[in-house]
Amino acid sequence: MSKLAEASAYSSKNMLALEALTDVSCQLAPQVGVHLFHFPLSLCSMKVRQALAENGVQWKSHPILLPAYQQYEPNYVRINPRCVVPTLVCDGKVTTDSANILHFINFQLSTIDPSQKPSDNEFKVVNLWLDKADSLPIEAVTYGDDRGEKKSLIFKKLANGGKDHESKANLLRKLVKRYQNEKLLKDAYESKLRIVEATRGIIQTPAHMNALNDTIDAALIELETQLFAGPFNENGWLASKNFSLADIVWGVVLYRLQKLGLEPLLWSKRTIITQYCEKLFTRESFKSGILDWDNLPKHVILPMIKHKLFSRIKSDN
Ligand SMILES: N[C@@H](CCC(=O)N[C@@H](CS)C(=O)NCC(=O)O)C(=O)O
Fold this sequence. Notes:
Elements: H1 3-6, E1 24-25, E2 34-38, H2 43-54, E3 60-63, H3 74-77, E4 87-90, E5 93-96, H4 98-109, H5 120-134, H6 138-144, H7 153-158, H8 163-178, H9 183-203, H10 206-229, H11 245-259, H12 263-266, H13 271-281, H14 284-289, H15 298-316
Parallel strand pairs: 2-3
Antiparallel strand pairs: 1-5, 2-4, 4-5
């Protein structure tokens, strides 16, 4: 089984995605203050919103409506050529890739007392757990795994056998043609098309999905072992005595797996993971960064419906 099938398309193991940007000037981005381009229910956006809350950073919200494919609009792609959310902009400078953004927030923007953060030594372990979470193939599981019996409605709709990825691929092919004379856009759409097609291939191949389930299973066994052996068992967190970025990313991953109805299959017998979830999900920053965004507000829903209708009419022409 190829690495591609087992890891996220954005994992450094895959080398499929365009390189992440770190603090790169962009004329099209807002020039003053901290801005986040994100989608309320996106996993990577959740991580970044919680990190902003944890680190006491004030920010302005720019919703990018994924179901309306706003992540492919030229003016957004000129800011984030990966055609994904989240994107962080700080005084006109762009940082992309959620893992990269988390580091940027933690080391460049944080306003909290360093004594409340992991020590330098602990940070090595934090990074290890960040990498493990980042390489999990959560997108394919979200769209392709229909084992969860108590899956929430919104995720039931997403698991449609890869149809969503087929629509995205069709749109991206049109965009590659339309913008063939603007190199940045053409390269961005081509790269995203390769990722979407690879992900669709995985979702639609049962053997790949089985391998992927095994990857998730193995990761949860490792998580359980670390919770027993590491700082969590002494009233600390996953990788360190103090709360860290590793807890943010694993909290979000576990929350997504729970929403997919996979908890009974994956960790109902691993009580230490349930205890860890309870501790994670009751943290204030989890509430403000994730739970408060769970119900899409009207100002997000209405433009999304309008955009869907409008773009359907446009693409029918
Ligand atoms: N971790 C990568 C991946 C981000 C990612 O996959 N974002 C998803 C939402 S969680 C997205 O924007 N999907 C839209 C699409 O693929 O069309 C990054 O931050 O660049």
